[in-house]
Every structure is written in C-alpha cells, then in structure tokens.
Specification:
Distance between the termini: 75 Å
InterPro entries: F-box_dom (IPR001810), F-box_Sdz-33 (IPR012885)
Number of strands: 15
Organism: Caenorhabditis brenneri
Strand order of the largest sheet: 4-5-6-3-2-1-7-8-9-10-11-12-15-14-13
Pfam family, one: FBA_2
Protein name: F-box domain-containing protein
Strand content: 15-25%
Largest sheet: 15 strands, mixed
Length: about 425
C-alpha cells in the first residue's frame, strides 16, 4: 500500500511533513516501512505509538475527523500491543476497534514475548488499565508484596513481568527529576515520575501520604480480585504507618500469606509486639529482628511456619501455646534440657497435632532430651542408613531425631503419622 504524498518532490514533501503533528506522524509511520523511512529522511523521527498521550490516541479514533474506511485501514496496521494500547483508553475506543473487526482485545491475551519487549511504564499502565475493566485475572501466578519501611513500595510479579511502584509524598514531587506521567489506579489519577538513580530506573507515585498510596493499591486489588498479599514486609521506625496499614488489612479482612520483619532498619519493640498480635500470616512468619533481653511476648502466632532468627524471647510457653503451627525454627535461643523435655511431653500428649518439624537452638544433646520416652524401635533405621531415634507419640504418630545432629547446636525433630517411614 502506498501514499500519494510519497510521490511529491523532496522539498515539497519536507515542507508538508514539517506541518504534521504527533498524531499525523504516527499515522503515516504505521502505514509501511517505506512511509516510516520517508519521514526519517525528512528529519522526523516519529514519536513511538506508546509515547502518545491518551487524548492524542483518541484523536485517531474520532469518526468526526477520520472517515470510517480510513480508520479501518489504520486499525489493520496496528499490532497486538498497539491494539491493546488503544483498547484500554476508554469504552469508546474499544467499541471502535470492535467496529473495525478487532474483538476481544486484551493485555491479558498478549504473549509473554510481546510483554517482554515493553518498557516497564508501559507494562504498569496497560496492566492497571486492563485490570480495571476485567472481573478476574488470568492464571499467571500474580503475587503482591508490600513493604512498610523507609522505602514504601508495592511489588507486583507474575509469569510475564515484575515491577515495583514506590510511594512518595506529593509535596516532594519537585525533588525528583525524570519522565512525568499520570497513572490511573481504580478511578483516580496520580502523578508518576520515572527517575534514573545511578542507572537504576525507579517508578514513583505521589500521594497526600505514603500510606494513602499503599492503601489505594490494597483496596484496588482486594475489591476487584480479592487478591491476597503474598508478602508483607516491615522495617524501620514507622509506627504510625505500621498501625495504619495493619488496621486497614484487618478491617478489609485481606489475607496475608507471609510476614517478614527485617533486621535493618529495625522495628521498635512496641511495633514488633503490635505486628505479632495483629497480623496473622497464613503461611510464614519470619523475623530477623534483634531484640533486647527484656523483650517478652506470650501469644499465638498462627502461621504454618515460624522462623525466628534471634529468638531468645521465643520461650517454652510460646512453643506450647502455638498449637496450629507445622514448622518452628528458632535460632539465637538456648533452650534448657527440661524445657525441651516439657515441649516433647506436650507433643506426646497430642496437644500439637499439626506439627511436622522443629529446629531449636540449644547446647543440650538430643539424646538427653529423648531419654526416658517410649521409643518406636522398628523405626530407628531410615532409608538413608543414618542412625535415627523414633519417639512414640499420640496414637500412631512418632517423632524422628537424627543422631547425626548431636553436637550441632540445635535440637531437631521431624514428626510423622504411622505408615510414612518404613
């Protein structure tokens, strides 16, 4: 397909091209490689389709400005990604695409390789706009991770992309230099700046407060898709933010799968106590926080897996009261022989039915802990040939202690029901 203007003398063609606006340049550029080459020869490097503003793209699809046949020809030259860019602008532009024979256009129908070629800001914009008009997400293994810290942000990942959006205070926007856009989340538009920090591009959005931004994203994904939080990370002295975010999560009954408390910058003891009491992780609670010897906490932690890296505060009472856990790992503790034996008695009595494994820091030998308990001698040699000791538990359950762990600085035991170990 050719364009009549391409037959004009060069000088006349250049004068004509100099009068083209962005929309017209992109329109001509998309017609053919030859048309694009002619524009470049005239000194016009066309603006990429994706860099056009929404109002400019909508101008391409205005029946009052372009005859339908011309519009249809133009649409036929658009690739899948370009069609999605047009489709998500508004219901009207999506309807115009359908009128031109382009049905079921969706960001979620793009191939991974097509998404991979997009710039991160394009992925963010197209994903959020597409999510706004859909009732469910595709099965791409979406994960939302929130960080409540000195650098508050959300990370969104799936099989085809990963991006991070930071939350800043609106009053600070002039401090940042970079590409400025407006991002639509739900029904709201917020300022966005893409900065280049020592070669690393960062996407920053600006709000009345940092927590307002985080809550806006939480509400969008909760209300639209009931999507759980894959990881909620806490770090730093952000007491007000921590309480605001946790209160929001609990009031909306948002599921939090994993909670991570970082070692640096540290939470205060009061904030850590608040998190333990008010955030219920369904899968994993992991704490790297170093606390003073005075810190105490007695209460249930409902996560399936507990990992405490500096756990002097995680006492025998904590071990006994947490009856819902499947795995408990505590470093930095120094459990005494009688404490470990008391814990083992709790398990033998059947009060810890879901427990699958414990690994507890101690200077006590494992044989001193299990001495005097009923043994299941038939289970004392596993498939690996390593020497083990099996302690008889409630019903047909038993716990295995690997004797090779002696002197390693911890007491480790795995728990089974009958028939799992021959």
């Amino acid at each position: 397909m050719g364009l009549p203007i391409l037959k004009l003398p060069y000088l006349a063609l250049k004068v004509l091209v100099d009068h083209f606006n962005y929309v017209e340049l992109v329109t001509v550029s998309l017609v053919s490689r030859r048309a694009d080459w002619v524009l470049k020869t005239c000194g016009k490097k066309p603006v990429p389709f994706f860099d056009m503003q929404g109002s400019e793209i909508r101008d391409l699809f205005d029946f009052d400005k372009i005859p339908f046949l011309a519009l249809k020809v133009f649409v036929n030259h658009l690739g899948d990604v370009e069609l999605v860019t047009v489709s998500v602008l508004s219901r009207r532009t999506d309807w115009l695409l359908k009128a031109c024979g382009k049905n079921n256009v969706s960001f979620f129908k793009l191939r991974g390789i097509e998404i991979g070629y997009l710039r991160q800001i394009q992925v963010i914009e197209l994903f959020l706009l597409e999510s706004r008009r859909q009732s469910e997400l595709p099965e791409w293994n979406f994960q939302l991770c929130y960080s409540v810290s000195y650098d508050q942000h959300i990370s969104i990942s799936c099989e085809h992309f990963f991006f991070r959006i930071r939350f800043e205070i609106l009053d600070d926007i002039e401090k940042f230099v970079g590409i400025r856009r407006r991002l639509k989340i739900g029904e709201s538009f917020v300022p966005l700046v893409i900065t280049n920090d020592d070669g690393v591009k960062k996407t920053r959005t600006f709000w009345s407060s940092e927590t307002d931004g985080m809550i806006a994203f939480m509400n969008f994904f909760k209300n639209k898709f009931n999507l759980p939080i894959q990881q909620l990370k806490f770090a730093g002295n952000r007491s007000r933010d921590i309480r605001t975010i946790v209160t929001q999560i609990n009031s909306t009954q948002t599921v939090v799968k994993n909670v991570l408390v970082s070692v640096h910058p540290p939470l205060s003891a009061d904030d850590f106590d608040f998190v333990l009491k008010n955030v219920s992780a369904t899968e994993n609670l992991s704490s790297h926080l170093i606390l003073s010897q005075d810190f105490k906490f007695i209460g249930k932690i409902r996560a399936k897996i507990i990992k405490i890296h500096y756990g002097h505060w995680f006492t025998l009472e904590n071990l006994a009261i947490n009856t819902e856990n499947e795995e408990i790992y505590v470093n930095g503790s120094d459990y005494l022989r009688e404490e470990l034996r008391s814990f083992l008695k709790e398990w033998v009595s059947g009060r810890l039915p879901k427990l699958k494994e414990v690994k507890l820091a101690t200077r006590v030998c494992c044989l001193d802990v299990t001495r005097g308990f009923s043994k299941r001698r038939v289970k004392c040699q596993n498939d690996s040939g390593r020497t083990v000791e099996a302690v008889l538990g409630h019903g047909d359950s038993y716990g295995i202690v690997d004797l090779a762990d002696r002197g390693q600085g911890y007491f480790r035991m795995k728990f089974y029901n009958g028939g799992l170990l021959q």
